[in-house]
Amino acid sequence: MNERVRHFLRESGPVLCLEIGCDTQSALLARSGQECANWPRWVLPSPARLVGQRIRELTLLKCGLWLYGGIMGDGFREALRGHLAAALPTCATLAAALALDEDVEAVRALGVSITETCPADCVPVHLEDFSPEFWESMLRLSGLPQPHMVLAAAQDHGSRPHAHGDTRMESWNAVLAANPDPARWIYAEAPASLPRLHALQKKTGGPVADTTAAAVLGALCEAAVLERSFREGITVVNAGNEHTLAALVYRGRVCALYEHHTELRELPHLLEDLRQLRLRWLPSEEVHVGGGHGTAFGESCEAAGSFAPTFLLGARRGLLAGHGRDIAPHGDMPHAGCFGLLHGWAQTRPHS
């Protein structure tokens, strides 16, 4: 653990680092005075997965459903479709409906009624990416201290004021143009254009970031990976359960990003995408056609070379076996994003 992180923890007290994915959430409790190998850590079902499980239970019980709470990941959408297909009452508050779509009329078109009170024939189900009560109980029952700060990451597709398709990579183009340093993508205050992170921060009270930033920063926690990026351009690939992210990195800065759905890209197609990304020949529109989110490009990095050295992270990195080197920051691949958040915030946090 580098000295900046040690100094930060001495100043801050315990920090809960949390990366919220589609299927799982990874968490670690970073504490001053302990070796990081001894920090408590968890890999748990994601909040959206738990919501989906509860919805399926209510479907089996033939109970109506009322969603309330706020914006969170929509990984429960398939369970909700099953509930609607069973012709069971399905309702939501306006705030909860935004977890499904910014356009409330689109939510109504799914068959969801909007109501601010729970109908008599429905069971309430709460939506949130972070439950302070859950983590307070988890830590207390484990005999662990409460965190003085929560650092959290979740994927945010951004607001779509005109509701015209996927704007996620358009937002990343703007981010790369503004500052290609991924440590600067951790927000002390989440912008209104990132509604999921904004809602998450209201719950955590601490800095937040997109999981893209967490993944890239996690890879750069590995000293050898960061050092290699200062000698030549590298490719970082995070093959997650739901999404596959690739980043071209040179001198610790991101030159380009690529994002697709893991299930929709077989290895030959993914390798061809990565080849074209390295050549800056892969337009977002081509990725959209295949069902992915797209690409984003920053400034050209001619001095970086071919970006051939490739480093692999993610639960499904085995899909790329033989096409890169597996890495495990601090010996713990599942918590790479958590370590990335910690390193990134310790490096760039504002000082009083």
What does this structure look like?
The strands form 3 sheets. Strands 3-2-1-8-10-9 form a 6-stranded mixed beta sheet, sandwiched between helices. Strands 14-13-12-11-15-16 form a 6-stranded mixed beta sheet, with helices on both faces. It has 13 helices and 16 strands. It has helices at residues 3-12, 47-60, 77-85, 94-97, 104-110, 132-141, 168-178, 195-204, 211-220, 223-231, 267-278, 284-289, 336-348; strands at residues 15-20, 24-30, 41-45, 64-69, 90-92, 113-114, 122-127, 149-154, 186-187, 208-209, 234-239, 243-250, 253-261, 294-297, 310-313, 325-326. A hairpin with a 3-residue loop joins strand 1 and strand 2. The chain is α/β, with parallel strands linked by helices.
Determine the N-to-C terminus distance.
23 Å
Give me the number of helical elements.
13
Shape: globular
Helix-strand pattern, N to C? HEEEHEHEHHEEHEHEHEHHEEEHHEEEH
Mean pLDDT score: 94
Keywords:
36% helix, alpha/beta, six-stranded mixed beta sheet, 352 residues
Summarize the structure.
This protein is of the alpha/beta class and 352 residues long. The protein has 13 helices and 16 strands.
